[in-house]
Amino acid sequence: MREPLLLGVDAGTSRVRALVFTLDGEVVGRGEAVAPTHSSRPGRSEQTADGLWTACCTAITSAIADPDIAARVRGLSVASCGEAFVPLDEHGEPTHSVIAWFDDRTVPMADEVARRLGADELFAVTGLTTDPTFSVMKLLWMRDHAAAALARTRVVLPVAHYLTWRLSGEIAADLTLASRTLALDIHRRSWATDLVADLGLVPEILPPLQPLGTLLGSVRRDVAHDLGLPPDCSVAVGGHDHVIGALAVNGLAAGSTIDSLGTAEAITVGLDRTISDPAVGRLGFNQGIGTVGTDGFQYVLGSFLASGASTEWARQLFGPDTAHAELIASAVNVPPGANGVAFVPDLRGKLIPTQDPAARGAWLGLTAETDRSSMYRAVLEGVALEAKQLLDSLGSVAPLPDVASIRAIGGNTRNRLLLEIKASVYETPVEYSVMPEATSFGAALLGGLAAGLFTNFAAAAIRGVGDTAIVQPNPEWFEVYRHRLSEVHVPAYRTLSEINHRLTSSRPASTPDG
Asked: How far apart are the first and last CA of the chain?
């Protein structure tokens, strides 16, 4: 019998990717499709459930286009970005569009939650801040502006679990995505039903919780027929993309530091116990928990919302046909400090060390002589400096071990110049997997766990994650970046804050039509 294969689906912010792996981590099939995002006004972004499902199906059928590959797929699961969810009625039909995780219409709801329940008190139960992006805030927005849709809602499913339901017909959620809702008690590892009810929401709409890798059953026969998957292909419970990627590289052991470079960037530090100090939450850091098989884990995560989004935005701005490789090649010859140009990467607001949805991005130091290469290098430096500020902020309030190296995962590990800048900003080596598809691979491994192809997730990850490479810091750049961080990057937010709040104060208010 030919070697079995595994399918991992990564439903990201703007596209769905599907990759087929051997048990040793070799990619033998891949596909992706855009999941259209619609914006009716600044700050508003939505998707449709059908659009997500169509993108998922397109990505999978592309990945298994070879009949021999399709026939050998034994297990699959789905990872996705957090916070966004699909609300379903009693017939399994969506009651409302999918509010994007980064949509900021929920800022008033975050203010309400903090005022009514207290930010420190919420952190003590959920491990989370009162960030506007969390799922509860979106439910509260529906309460106020789409009450009829919320009344018809019988279950809310995070994107990964919605796609899993469409594939298997079974409803379940996991702790890593539940950790992004503000409705989970991280100490009891169960839904915080009293908290949810106190906010005027119905706890019964929250789905049952299962460990990562739990077997939900096989792919539905009609779906298997339409996609070309074997009808006995196992479907497993998946979870939060950043966390699944970290698991795939064994990066959630206590003290491990993972820098996940996606559209948003998340720095995750594995913990041996949850943190009780509310100062961690006040700075914008969030905790999470999970279970894979019978093994539990916990972590603290800090993120900023426009990392890969900043580099992609710049590429599009310079011309839709401009390749990242072209920009990188030109920026390599720009000295550190980008010829006096700085970039503030707050294109989607700021979370750490100040939660401010009104924060905005900016290029600073532009002159008539500034060229595209300097501007692009400034974007890479701004992204790296933002991550350094995040890590320094966490270290100021949490007792973290010395960081000997940082493990980077995600698509932007392909940007060698970005990794060189990051290593020099961190002043420590950055290790990265030669195979950058850690999230898809982690999802695929969960499918293999459900299919019974191995009994230990960690051992399977070690077997398949493959070679790593290390980018060393450049000591000649240290002083430039130390000065840029303390004298330009950190003060830039405070200097621009008042102006950005003026610019956003005239935004239209929420209306019943969403």
From this structure: 53
Check: CB of residue 280 under 8 Å from CB of residue 317.
Answer: no
Tokens found for residue 62: 């592309």
Q: For residue 153, how many C-alpha atoms fall within 13 Å in the half-sphere facing its CB?
A: 26
Please report, for residues 60, 97, 142, 337, the alpha-carbon distance to residue 398 in angstroms, rounded to integers and kept in the order given.
42, 38, 36, 30
Could you tell me which of 409, 453, 411, 451 has the C-alpha nearest to residue 433? Answer: 409
Cα(115)–Cα(113) distance, integer angstroms: 5
Pair of tokens at residue 121: 């008190």
> Hey, what are 99's tokens?
């509010």
Those residues whose C-beta lies under 8 Å from the C-beta of residue 444, and which sit 6 or more positions away, are 6, 7, 8, 19, 20, 21, 75, 76, 77
Pick the closest to residue 106 from 386, 362, 355, 285 (CA basis): 355
Q: What's the pLDDT tens digit per position in 306-344? A: 999 999 999 999 998 999 999 999 999 999 999 999 999
The two tokens of residue 378 are 């400034």
DSSP type of residue 297: E
Give the integer Cα–Cα distance in Å for 412 and 327. Answer: 14
Which SS3 state, helix, strand or coil, does residue 106 take?
coil
Residue 335 token pair: 């000295």
* pLDDT tops 90 at residue 266: no
Question: Which amino acid is present at 409?
Answer: I
Q: Which residues contact 204 (CB under 8 A, 6 or more apart)?
A: 154
Q: Retrieve residue 308's tokens.
A: 């890969």
Give 393-417 pLDDT, tens digit per residue: 988 887 665 555 688 988 889 899 9
| C-alpha–C-alpha distance, residues 430 and 266, integer Å | 15
The Cα 480–Cα 489 span in angstroms is 12
At what angle are helices 241-248 and 438-450 packed, to 10 degrees? 80
Q: Sheet with 15-22: list strands edge to edge.
A: 27-34, 15-22, 5-11, 73-80, 234-236, 215-218
Instruction: Tell which residue, 432, 394, 438, 391, has the closest CA to residue 414.
Output: 432
Q: Read off the tokens for 364.
A: 């600073």
Quickly count: other Cβ atoms within 10 Å of residue 88's Cβ. Answer: 23
The strands making up 468-471's β-sheet, listed across from edge to edge, are 286-292, 295-304, 265-271, 257-261, 406-409, 430-433, 468-471
The answer to whether the bond into 353 is cis (omega within 30° of 0) is yes
In contact, 466 and 254? CB cutoff 8 Å: no
